[in-house]
Amino acid sequence: MALGLVAYAVAWVWGGRPERFAAGVLIVVCMVSMIVFRWQIGGFHLPALLLDMSRLLVFGWFCLRSDRWWPFVVTASIGLMVFVQSARLVDPSISQYAAASANVGLGYLVDLALLLGVWERRLAGELATGPAAWAAADREPATARGRGDKARMSETCLT
């Protein structure tokens, strides 16, 4: 969990929009999973399975719309987590410890892929979203600027 929190903080501070989106989703899932961690139905963690399935859908959508490599790794890891939990539902001989170990190891892979995505972004010389987003917020919106330019252009054409 400590690696995850460090990865999410690094992604939020030094990452771009894709990294920030992923960090936000993973933080929300982390908080919700702390609530549903103890909920068991028939000895199985069904709420955790539903949470992982929703995370799989979000990251599946995200990796198909992204041009980065790490969302594919994250989606594949989450898919394997869902597979392990589903396999435990089908075959009760799979111990809870084996499923938990698989989830922990694949969770580390998710966090590591996010960290490596931020590191690759830094190596490529891409700026973090933070300063650029704050600087853009200080300026007037592009739509107002665009309408003003068109209005000025039409005034000069008319005169």
Give the topology.
Layout: H1 2-14, H2 17-36, H3 46-65, H4 70-90, H5 96-123, H6 129-138, H7 142-158
Helix pairs in contact: 1-2, 1-5, 2-3, 3-4, 4-5
Short description:
The protein contains 7 helices and no strands. By secondary structure, the protein is mainly α.
How many DSSP helices? 7
How many strand units? Answer: 0
Bin the strand percentage: under 5%
Mean of residue pLDDT values = 81
> Would you identify the regions where 5 or more consecutive residues have pLDDT less than 50?
150-159
**What best-fitting shape do the alpha-carbon axes yield?**
elongated
**Largest β-sheet summary:** none
Task: Indicate the percent of residues in helices.
Answer: over 70%
Q: Which structural category fits the helices and strands?
A: mainly alpha
User: How many domains?
Assistant: 2
Radius of gyration, taken over Cα atoms and rounded to an integer in Å: 22 Å
Helix-strand sequence: HHHHHHH
| Alpha carbon gap, first and last residue | 67 Å
Describe the 3D structure.
The chain has two domains: 2-126; 130-159. The longest helix is centred in the last third of the chain and has 28 residues, at 96-123. 81% of the residues lie in helices and 0% in strands. It is elongated, with a radius of gyration of 22 Å. The chain is mainly α. It starts with a helix and ends with a helix. The protein has helices spanning 2-14, 17-36, 46-65, 70-90, 96-123, 129-138, 142-158.
